Amino acid sequence: MAGTVLSTRALNRATLDRQLLLARTDRSVEDVVTHLVGLQAQTTHTWYLGLENRIDGLDPHAVGRMLTDGDLVRITLMRGTIHLVTPQDCRILRPTVQPAIDRGFSGSNHGQATRGMDLDAIARAGYELLLTRPMTPRELGERLEDRWPGVNGDHLAQAVKDRLPLVQIPPRGVWGANGSPAFAPAETWTGSAMDADADPEALVLRYLAAFGPASVKDVQAWSSLTRLKQVFEGLRDRLVELRAEDGTVLFDLPEAPRPGEDVTAPVRFLYDFDNVLRGHFDRSRVLPDEYRSRLASRNGMPPATVLVDGFVRAAWKVVRGKGAVPHMEVTPFAPINGADRDAVVAEGERTLAFLEPGGHGVRFAEV
Predict the structure, then answer these.
(1) Residues 6 or more apart from 273 whose CB is under 8 A from it?
(2) Taking burial as the number of CB atoms within 10 A of a residue's CB, which of 175, 186, 208, 284 is the most buried?
(3) Phi then psi for 318, rounded to 5 degrees?
(4) Phi, psi at residue 314, to the nearest 5°?
(5) What residues have CB less than 8 Å from 133, skipping those under 6 apart?
(6) Closest residue by Cα to residue 357 from 231, 201, 176, 178
(7) Which pLDDT tens digit goes with each residue over 90-107?
(8) What are the pLDDT digits (tens) for 16-40?
(9) How far apart are CA 150 and CA 328, in angstroms?
(10) C-alpha span between 335 and 341 (Å, rounded)
(11) CA end-to-end distance (rounded Å), the chain
């Protein structure tokens, strides 16, 4: 298949299929989260919609219980962001992406403030404190300030979060619950030793299964790892080489599904940090270039978006007025008419029922 060119539309359908966005599945939550190589989940609850978009009949309360019981965990992984993963993937993924986490810390204000300090010693002290009980970053920082007076506790706590695999524990992240972000060592929370070796080859293969076909730059953008070209070179006999319309070399697993561009893609209301929008250097396979600026935000919180015919075509939000019934507001980036508009209304009502039982109505803002 070397040299086979995939149109942007065919690439879109392949990606949506891998991301389980062409049809909801009856696979278990653990199976889906594992297949996706984690679900970006730094927000408290919006990521539940990412599961609802992929799993038929999802019970968010059951997912919340899985967090409470330790069957799922939220931990810093790819791109230095919190992801929802199984305990097994917590063990496997963290050492592989640790170099990227270290690099991100080094270039941050926290890294600059602790430059020249013994970060391993700070991590050991933080670990000992967290063995006594879970702590919020503020609590941990205040305790560490006793050991390193004159250094802001925020910087010290962040150093511990960088060096150690810490899980953000419930009730934070549990559906319908709130709580301050508190952290515990991954091995004490999951009961599994964090003793896996880094395995970038396995990471690349899993990435392609969930996000492919993809370029080297795509995998590097998703993981924040660098120098993956050498990893791909070592995997060449296990991959097929394709090309995008612009000539970019794409790699894929030989038996991975690549449905044709004529396959129907249903409307989906994506949450703000959905994997399908965060998994590639070139996001044009789902986000048309002319709409990229519509997702920019000053506070780092992008709008939630609507896929129509597989591509981002609108933004959405739930409007909650005092004493009023919540409704869905859709802001198209270009006119949406006919059957597409009807499909947006139907899926919007479904999404609203999931997020706000008792809510009603989908309204379109002016284009």
Answers:
(1) 40, 41, 42, 43, 46, 47, 81, 302
(2) 208
(3) -90, 125
(4) -165, 165
(5) none
(6) 176
(7) 999 999 999 999 999 999
(8) 999 999 999 999 999 999 999 999 9
(9) 49
(10) 9
(11) 43
